[in-house]
Design a protein that fits this description.
By secondary structure, this protein is α/β, with parallel strands linked by helices. Helices cover about 45% and strands about 20% of the residues. The chain starts with a strand and ends with a helix.
Amino acid sequence: MTIAFIVLNYNNLEDTKCCISSLLELSYCDKKIIVVDNASPDNSYADLKNLYKDEDGVDFIQNEENYGFSKGNNIGCQYAIKKYDADLLCVINNDTYIEDKDFCGKLIEVYKETEFDILAPCVWNVRKNYNQNPFYCPANVEEVEREIANIKRKSKYFKFGAVAYYLASKFYKNEITGKTLSGAACIFSRNYYSKYAEVFIEKTFMYNEEAFLYQRIVNDNLKLVYNNELVIYHSDGKSTGKVYKNKIKKWKFQSEKILLADEILLQYLTENKD
């Protein structure tokens, strides 16, 4: 079976190097690594391409502009499907890495046993020390509306500083019930990708990818399998951290993008409500 790893890079040379290097160490021979650069302005694309120019099975794609998470990864997925006829697509963040050299062999065994559409590995957050799976997202219109209201409430506390915003975030919690998988590492089978024109629904630039996947899983009765034996380590939040050194600026950026993604999700759910 051909396993393709899709890694999206944006302004993050060191983490992407760590990710690629860990993938090259995996013992399985029929693996392909597709690095998609989202028009990084920091020359990381050229540096990465030069570093791995002599490695077989490592391909590079440079997008003309920053297409965001879903479209950027879709470009890599379509490349893997068309060029390599990949059986499994492992879409992983560039700030992730794999230590288990037999990861691919174990993944194939899990697929043979379960014939999953989507597999959620253990995504171990190395900064906060917890497994990000299962991941929960807003499941319906009401939950998205509550989340939007809470984001707007919390945003009023930015002017009072980082501590005030942090405390407000703890207070304004939204109960969400959509059980899905973390977007930091999604593994798709041919069963899944043959059903759709796009691996990810291209509605948002960033955030809520998991919520749109959840809608597909529920509406199309897809088989989502969780497996804690397959471990991918995640250095959470490094990409936005590199762009925004100031904590308040980073939180403001994230808040604005999540709000926009929630509004898009709300429109989608409203239009498709039974």
